[in-house]
Amino acid sequence: MAVSLRLKLFVLVAGAALFAATGVTSVAMWREVVRGQELLSREGAAIAASVAGAAGRWVRADAAVPGASEALAEPLARVLEAAPLQGAWVVDRGGKVLACVENVTGACHPGVPTEFEPAEGPLAAVRRLANPAPLEAQAPVIGPDGALVGAVRVAFSPDEVVGTARRLAFGSAAVALLWLTLAYVAAGVLVQRFTRPLTELVGASRRLAEGENVELVAKGDAEVNGLVKAFNQLSARLRERREENERLIASLNERIAEATREVLRADRLATLGGIAAGFAHELGNSLHVIGGYASVVQRDLPADHPNRSDVDALKRETSRAGAMLHRFLFFARARAVRTELQPVEPVLREAVEVVGPAAAQAKVTTRVAVADGLPMLRADGELLRQAFLNVCVNAVEAMKEQGGELAVSARAEGDQVWVEFQDTGPGIPKAEHERIFEPFFTTKPTGTGLGLAIVRHAAEAHSGSVEVDSEPGRGAKFRIRLPAAKESA
Predict the structure, then answer these.
(1) β-strands 404-413, 416-423: how paired?
(2) For residue range 159-199, what is the model confidence (pLDDT) as tens digits?
(3) 68, 87, 309, 398: which has the fewest Cβ within 10 Å?
(4) Cα–Cα distance measured from residue 489 to residue 412, given in angstroms and rounded to the nearest whole number
(5) Residue 479's pLDDT is what?
């Protein structure tokens, strides 16, 4: 049969009352010890005063009368025989011992006399129970002119001071310690049985607030079992609500992500589509006309004609402008991604091969390393090829002044394929790591700022991502993450 909480509290209160009674006994014993030592101190002062009158004839303010030591030894000896003292002595005003009679060596120590020495406190009296020490008392020695010239001091032996009191105190302390131990043991057991279920309930409540699924086992008292049952019901309801909320949040996140993609795509199309439509028509036609006339003039002019270099520059810049327009239109069209199951290696090697002549001219060596067993991708090959090519072109252009190496690799991590482009160029400041993927942001004098924007567009169109790791003077590493096709084994 389980013990009720009321009974536990009753037993706990009874133990506290028993301890309080023992404490009252200890306090009464303490007061008796203090009172006994106060009486002994007064007795010592009276004994010292009985010798102080005779000592006044032999002690002066500046020095003792000749023969004082022998004359004072006799009354001191009588005092030492009549009372349980361990020493009695006379000191002058400077604290010098003039006469001394002792039962214990070293009892007569010097000391400056004063009529205003404070009485010992209760704690000092109780400390003698644990560390026995003689109790000293004194009486002033008054000279013929009424001035203080010295003092008579007596010291009671420690056994006389605390002997009986220590035995009584130790007995009382032993009884108090016994009852105190029993009370603490009983209280500890009862409190533990009473508080442990509540402590477990508090800890479970904290874990429940942090999102854990918690269920307690009912045990112990009926009152606590009722709390545990109510807690388990609350936990079950919160678990059901949490699971329902998680399903709703997952659905909302999916819808928000899809809506965000559609809004971004629509915004990009709305902004760049209008610009691209006008420029594509006008600039495209103009560039074709200029390029055509430049080709005709270039064909008709002999190689040593003084204007031949101007015509070559005209055709070269026309071709460059056409390439810029083509890249701009490629980004602005934002056509729908047409995916098919395919490996990444052929697309990657083709992009590196296309950039090969430009790399050789810039004294840049290329290296491709593709891990074995890469999973297939469900990707738009044309879009990936353009993204890989843009990263390679940027790397070659970054190293065209001093040459270097472009290392391209592909590997698998879990259900992801990572394509990395590592160059030995001048690197990219950390402040520009995010901005380089923004449209129209460029650090090149003749750049359009669309190359890396196309790279990010291609990666995100395949539910992937692109990131850069670079520091000035240490080259740059671009990592494109692409999810593997679920159909691949």
Answers:
(1) antiparallel
(2) 766 666 666 667 666 766 676 676 666 666 666 666 666 67
(3) 309
(4) 13
(5) 93
Model pTM score? 0.39
CATH fold of the domain at 338-483:
Heat Shock Protein 90 (3.30.565)
Topology annotation, domain 5-181: Beta-Lactamase (3.30.450)
Dist. CA 317–CA 298, nearest whole Å: 14
H or E element in which residue 466 lies: strand 465-470
- Could you tell me the residue ranges of all domains in the chain? 5-181, 222-334, 338-483
Residues 6+ apart with CB under 8 A from 455: 387, 390, 391, 437, 466, 478, 480
| Phi-psi domain of 422 (left: phi exceeds 0; alpha: psi -120 through 50; beta: other) | beta
Residue 213 pLDDT > 90? no
Predicted pLDDT of residue 375: 92
The alpha carbon torsion through 371, 375, 378, 379 (nearest 10 deg) reads 0
Sheet holding 364-370, edge to edge: 364-370, 404-413, 416-423, 476-483, 465-470
- The answer to whether 175 touches 22, Cβ cutoff 8 Å, is yes
62 burial (CB, 10 Å; 0-12 / 13-18 / 19+) is: exposed
Closest of 358, 475, 347, 367 to residue 417, by C-alpha = 347
Residue in this structure with the two tokens 């000896």, named with its chain if needed = 77
N- to C-terminal Cα distance for the chain? 64
Question: How many other C-beta atoms are found inside a 10 Å radius of the C-beta of residue 107?
Answer: 21
What gap in Å lies between CA 132 and CA 23, rounded to an integer? 24
Residue with more model confidence, 6 or 400: 400
- 158-209 vs 122-130: helix axis angle to the nearest 10? 100
The percent of residues in the chain predicted with pLDDT above 70, rounded, is: 67
Taking the CA atoms of the chain, what radius of gyration do you get in angstroms? 52
User: How would you list the strands of the sheet with 148-156, edge to edge?
Assistant: 97-102, 85-92, 148-156, 135-142
Contact 387, 454 (CB under 8 A): yes
DSSP for residue 95: S
Q: Please name the residues in contact with 462: beta carbons below 8 A apart, sequence gap of 6 or more.
A: 337, 339, 377, 379, 380, 383, 384, 482, 483
Q: What is the pLDDT of residues 349-391, one digit of tens each?
A: 999 998 888 889 989 999 999 999 899 998 888 888 988 988 8
Mean pLDDT (the chain) is 77
In angstroms, the CA 138 to CA 48 distance is 6
